[in-house]
Amino acid sequence: MSLPELSKLSLEQTSESHPVSEPDPHGGDQPQSRADPSPQEEDDMVTVFTDPANFNVKHPLNSSWILWYDNPGKKTNQHSWSQNLKQIICFDTVEDFWGIWNNLIPISDLSAGSNYHFFKEGIKPMWEDPANDKGGKWVIQLPRKTGEQINQLWLYTVLSCIGESFAYEDEICGCVASIRKGFYRLALWTRSSDDQEICLSIGTHLKETLSLGPNQSLGFQAHSDASRSGSFKKDRFVV
């Protein structure tokens, strides 16, 4: 089961399923009360009393996901960095995700150098992984003074990722939050970096999900470009 548009917290779905009555055009300002359910509707209702065994059933995600964490502290080489990378927990249901999320330290409270990674099970959050080596990442970087907003943007990024809301969902590998001394960086990792149509579709959807302002943009960087020591490459795509 996917999490349809959970990155928007589904306010629209709430209003659709529980519409607000229009005010009385003749001056009344009280919405009409909902009619009592008919006997047939009462018979159709499912509650914990009618099915106590399955009422609290968990809702599976389309994929299993793993939360990783690292904080290397001092600058390290690739080998020591991979040794510092820790697998925290695997989850595959909506309920398990929220149980984990509600016990995580917000990224705004993490020390500089820390990184959270949410990746599909079977994919490690490193360039060398076969699922990542030909891919890239959509990146947004924000100053540390962003404060609470960065926590919200990170949540929306994770929800769109694990909720598999992208048109090219098979392209999504995972997402990363990086905390640095002067900025935060959020990144969505993809399998490929050369197909412009696919890359732009993913980037555009992510930008809409994050509700970024007109002066805020996302840039796409290929892992192959970033891994060339001493080289600097401009973003391949920008949305």
Blueprint (SSEs and pairs):
Blueprint lengths: L10 H7 L21 H6 L15 E11 L7 H7 L1 E8 H8 L13 E6 L15 E8 L4 H15 L9 E8 L3 E8 L5 H15 L8 E4 H4 L10 E2 L1
Antiparallel strand pairs: 1-2, 1-3, 3-5, 4-6, 4-7, 5-6, 7-8
Summarize this, please?
GO terms for molecular function: RNA 7-methylguanosine cap binding; translation initiation factor activity. Helix content is 26%, strand content 23%.
Please, could you describe this protein's structure?
This protein has 239 residues and is an alpha+beta fold. It has a single domain, classed as RNA Cap, Translation Initiation Factor Eif4e (2-Layer Sandwich). Helix content is 26%, strand content 23%. It has seven helices and eight strands. The chain has helices spanning 11-17, 39-44, 78-84, 94-101, 148-162, 196-210, 223-226, and strands at 60-70, 86-93, 115-120, 136-143, 172-179, 183-190, 219-222, 237-238. An eight-stranded antiparallel beta sheet has the order 2-1-3-5-6-4-7-8, sandwiched between helices. The chain is globular, with a radius of gyration of 22 Å. Mean pLDDT is 81; it is low at 1-34.
